Structures
1.
Amino acid sequence: MEANIYLLTELMENSDESNPDIKVNESDPTCIFFTSGTTGLPKGAPLSNKTYILAAKSICAIPLVNKKSRNYTCLPLFHANAQLYSVTGMRCLGASLVLSDHFSPRNFFNKISKYKATYFNSIGGMMQILDVTFGEEDVPEHTAKFVAVGGTPKELWERFEKKFKVDIFEAYSMSEVPVLFGNFHPEKSKRKVGSFGKPIFADLGRETKIVDDHNQEVKAGVGELIQKGQDFMMKEYLNAPKATSEVFDADGWIHSGDIVRKDEEGYHYFVDRKKFIIRVAGENVSAFEVEDVVNSHPAIEQSAAIPVPDPIRGEEIKIFIKLKEGINDVNMEEIIEHCAQRLAYFKVPRYIEIVSKFPKTSTERIQKMTLKNEERARECHGWDRNKEIPDWRNKYYNIK
């Protein structure tokens, strides 16, 4: 089919000042966000005008965000983070925005200072890259006071705040439910490291809860996060009734697919994607937790943990690692020892493979399903802890 192409200059030249008087309702769809595609093909999530604006305003729950704020973002505008929490959030406030066209770790803080930004938006991968780019003494002077971010590993959190002299305000959302959860308490002592906080606008009819495998609510503990409330989420996936029926239950709750821990005070902590929980001899292991520990090794820039089928234990853990710039090799036994000092024995990776790069989405998220599918076709899964250190359990845990 041939497309009709119109030049903006021609449209403007032929336009007039008459008002088309088009009425817009708050329930009308205003945009379609596509899911990141880390666990499968991206799906379109249409959002209404009201949901879109509530999502944008939810960033304003950060106590330091106000009309004098100047936000810096280098994230792409097709992504909800930049579009909602930077551009539209600042427009709702009448505040300032600095929009960069790419992420440059070395020039990042120079740009922030050049444009006098008071804070910046980030995703977890950017935080890790900035952390490995700069040493304690290498961080340039800058004007940012805090960062609004989703997905900061606990191991990185306090180190990042100290090194870059910023406060971290952790948040959580999904393309389907873009109104934020936020760890936004005005008093820093009451912000819990590792938590993405509580749901914003819970007083406006938004419902959230944690449920177990039988869909029973868990008041405090671990389970899947589900949400409800027509003003806060999409009504369906675009032209995908099967996918819609898989994510919504009979009572209208949308299932996130995220395993979350909720504490006694109502603070939420990300555990892992439900599809990335690794079952090792009947034990549930969070890939996110394993990666957090592996990434804290001084030679490692980034990692990805995936399950590998095992005929006896069901699944074993494989970790892919990318080394920091300038480091060409690492002692695998040192990585196992590093993990053993910080993880239960059944969470220590069995297989390790060094890679030069990861398959990633356009927003820098590792495509773990690609790694997982490729691994299924392989007979050799890389360096094998059981072969190279046969007495590792006794050596590190005194378990024979």
Note: The two ends are 69 Å apart (CA to CA).
2.
Amino acid sequence: MVGFNSVVEIVGSEMEGRKITASPRPSCGRRVVANKRPRSNSVKKIQRREICSKRDRAFGMSDAQERFRNIRLQEEYDTHDPKGHYGMVLSFLKKRSKIIEIVAAHDIVFALAQSGVCAAFSRETNRRICFLNVSPDEVIRSLFYNKNNDSLITVSVYASDHFSSLKCRTTRIEYIRRGKPDAGFALFESESLKWPGFVEFDDVNGKVLTYSAQDSIYKVFDLKNYTLLYSISDKNVQEIKISPGIMLLIFSKTSGHVPLKILSIEDGTVLKTFHHLLHRNRKVDFIEQFNEKLLVKQENENLQILDVRNSELTEVSRTEFMTPSAFIFLYENQLFLTFRNRTVAVWNFRGELVTSFD
């Protein structure tokens, strides 16, 4: 599903969880950016088949036209409301802008515009049900469909707060279907989510991670009922990476190594504590975790793939693997994608390049 200029074109797909950081600006770049043509779903299908190990899923370029020739535009929804609902006080909320997020839940499609206006549409009637902005100064930053309790979580900032702090609200899909978006309730009210604080929704483990920059405390909540499970209070924690079942805590770098901890995502129990040796006077480009694999890259150094279970180390030459701008881990395929400029590369965890494409 893609949209442009406040018009949503539906061709099918779903959204995943993500991390949203607090920012003083009412709108900014997103992980999911709308394109002009409805082609992202097709591209994803092609990529899945290209990297699949099953022979019956692979196909040549000559088959693509036949496989996708029946894709047609089904419906078109418009989120734009030039009059402004609920007596909006922010002028940019009334202006037409790009669609940056689309979430589908049952028979409802939610579309979020870059301006911060979010609308819900019925697939059955092909009409707009309601807007999700329940306050005249609310700017919605992101959406998350919580399948655990069939609700939609909105993450917003407010003009009255100078757009400096994230506020989360959950609303049952049934209430939205009835046109009652204000029937929801606030989440994580005790947390100060001002920049650089954040909230991260982990759909795989059914958890929510929040970071309060004011007191340097990370908290993990249950995504089913939003109860607090445990807290992590350590000012030396620089980053937290989440994988199925575990969390990686990355601490402040010392002169010759970076301290690391692996925790159980369920209760915060420390499963392993270790140090990873680093080259002195070289900055760390990234540290990423994929299940038991740890990926470490320093400036002008080889990529290191460490198996934390047995300390087995694999290196990829810096001339073959250059620092990417983004990662996507493919858990089902045990592969990972790297994005650099206009090139997408597919790697396995033996450090081998599987394929690449522009």
Note: The longest strand covers residues 138-146.
